[in-house]
Please model this.
Amino acid sequence: MNRLVHLELHTHDLGGASAFYDELLRWRTERIDVPRGSYHALAIGGPFDGGLVECGTAHPTWLPYVEVEEIEEITERARRLGAAVLLRPREGPAGWSSVLRSNVGGEIALWQPKQPLVKGVE
Model:
């Protein structure tokens, strides 16, 4: 089963977004220094986590990350189904990610952790 594992807000105002969600929902953030800019880890509770990313987007957008077993295969399947591949699978410290956009399904990110998935363990 492909489950939602991370929710990320891409915004042009990291401080404003962080303050808004803290005040509205008591979602706490923690600044993390990353090579490509500013990032705030977001404690939203429940079975997954989140983050706030500062970027040049004109319209803030939430991007859900879904855990998959074969990121290359599923990214290619999305392309065959008509999705635009905004970010080809790329490796990060803990796994691989890709980003897709469909005219009928919005944007979604795929995530494949470096550690093998353990079936039935949460």
Summary: The two ends are 12 Å apart (CA to CA). The chain has two helices and eight strands.
